[in-house]
Amino acid sequence: MCGITGWVSFRRDLRAEQVTVDAMTETMACRGPDDRGTWVAEHAALGHRRLAIIDLPGGRQPMSVETPDGPVVLVYSGETYNFTELRKELGGHRFTTDSDTEVVLHAYLEWGDAFAERLNGMYAFAIWDSREDRLVMVRDRMGIKPFYYYETADGVLFGSEPKAILANPVAERTVTLDGIRELFAFVKTPGHAVWEGMREVEPGTIVTVGSNGLRTTPYWTLETREHTDDRDTSIAHVRDLLEDIVRRQLVSDVPRCTLLSGGLDSSAMTAIAARQLAEKGESVRSFAVDFVGQTENFVPDDLRGTPDTPFVHDVAERSRTQHQDIVLDSDELADPEVRSRVIRARDIPIGLGDMDASLYLLFKAIREHSTVALSGESADEVFGGYQQFFDPEAQRATTFPWLVRFARHFADDDDILTPGLSESLHLPDYVQSAYDRSVAAVRRLDGESDFEWRMRKICYLHLTHFVRILLDRKDRASMAVGLEVRVPFCDHRLVEYVYNAPWSLKTYDGREKSLLRGATKDVLPQSVVERVKSPYPSTQDPRYAVKLQSNARAYLSDPGHPVFDLVNRDWLARAVTVDTPQITQASRRGLERTLDLALWLDMYKPALKLS
Fold first, then answer.
1. Over the chain, what is the mean pLDDT?
2. 196-236, pLDDT tens digit by residue?
3. Which one of 49, 271, 443, 479 counts the least CB within 10 Å of its CB?
């Protein structure tokens, strides 16, 4: 895992731009604390920060191969889990390291752009091919690793994160209404990067840049296929895939662990990993997040019916993991410095508040013990675990199904926005247009019932939109502290197989994630097998909301603060004076939004174009 950046310019000599290339590279220091390197030629400059995971002494980058027609140079972030098999296929090539990076570079030399279809992993990388004077940018199929680019008048800037691009004076720090819409719509439009002129390399896509311009070519899409396996065969195949995926993703030359929430997903992954490592005489380290007093004082609500910790401990005991709870208090969660670090990691204000802060603090604590962690992230999107999958209103809605649930629990953001901005954004139209474009890409099977067709579209939307919100959150929070988090449930073979299983098979026992439960119940405690889905935890400590009010109150004394170009000052004045028992989820979320926006405006100083 690493941070990459670069600059291609066909009308200037980049050998005179080393200072700028270094500045872009150093913004990625958190992603790669172990090493740094740059490679600069006349029309291309590449920067790399390394987090050493495999072949610690041999995987330095940028990595290059000299050919008769010039060097081919790679900067690479991520892991290719099938690099051992690919290396065997590349028998005629000479390798000087044991790293997966070198295998990826030689795979490109052997197969050209078609090499991307052979990779299994999470990755974002760029190759400068001086034989053709072109840049090749590739992102993994599910978008696990972030990758951004910014077209210039004579080339492109790119980076693992927007901050690398924004460190170049060529890039303008502008956010238009479309960028604000993306911040508030919660739909994760593919390719959208919030910053004007900047785009994401879309998942499963190759972007090439030459002197004649930029070209985008998908090498993978989520396709509709007929599922012919019966229930028992499907369950067995899911288990076989999980065994293979976890075995591949446990490969590491540095300490590794699992993230354990006590839910079905992370528990199944942890249990499989524990069994595989036990065969080698090893044990799994596991970590969970908790809040001071949460388990003892837990109050069930519509989103979360049970606290996590008792289930976490059941799994840790059953799988004999070396377990540690990371227990956080409200002072830590509400600390403005922690919020600032989260915003810096994300480059944009998302407004998830304590759920972002706790994830960052969890990863920070884990990094003291491990460099690699396996996560249960994305199983809900793959197997159908969220409540909206089973909500009749969300099933029938002609919009993103999670927005139906959010509106019910949190209201919408219109209340906190200035009236003029709310009117200018036309968020309902923006969301509807995004939804219509997305479902138009889904193919219906011949003979598929209306209900199965609706559920296919819901599954598709979660796998192409919702999952990317959470994957980005996970990546930024983990890489901000130099922790690599792997996501077994995002293996494209598993995603393709389960996506095409009919909804009736995904829910054959009348519950969520039936295929996953059936495939892994033999390694799980019964308490987890029977547990109802519970989302990522959020603190219930009322003192946290009081601290939010206190932090937000400070901005009211500065009426000229740019946050009031976005946030309704009268709304904020009311929200900070509400008595603690009356603070609703909507108000708490609005306070989180306001604090995130204010910090972001102070740190990044974007030029806002709101008309």
1. 95
2. 999 999 999 999 999 999 999 999 999 999 999 999 999 99
3. 443
Q: State the pLDDT at residue 129.
A: 98
Looking only at the bridges linking them, the beta strands covering 322-328 and 285-291 are: parallel
Strands 372-374 and 484-486: parallel
The token pair at 124 is 């974002």
Q: 237-252 burial, b if ≥16 CB within 10 A, otherwise e?
A: bbbebbebbbebbbbb
Q: Which CATH number fits domain 231-530: 1.10.10.10, 3.40.190.10, 3.40.50.620, 3.40.50.300?
A: 3.40.50.620
Block residue for tokens 């009348």: 510
| β partners of residue 240 | none
Q: Say how far apart CA 400 and CA 183 lie, in whole Å.
A: 15
- Average pLDDT for residues 492-514, to the nearest whole number? 98
Higher pLDDT, 478 or 582: 478
Q: Give me the DSSP letters along 366-406.
A: HTTT-SEEE--TTHHHHHT-SGGGG-HHHHH-SS-HHHHHH
Superfamily of domain 2-218 in the CATH hierarchy: Aminohydrolase, N-terminal nucleophile (Ntn) domain (3.60.20.10)
Comparing C-alpha atoms, which of 492, 438, 459, 457 is closest to residue 384? 459
Say what the pLDDT of residue 56 is.
Answer: 80
Catalytically annotated residues: 2
Task: Report pLDDT digits (tens) over 502-512.
Answer: 999 999 999 99
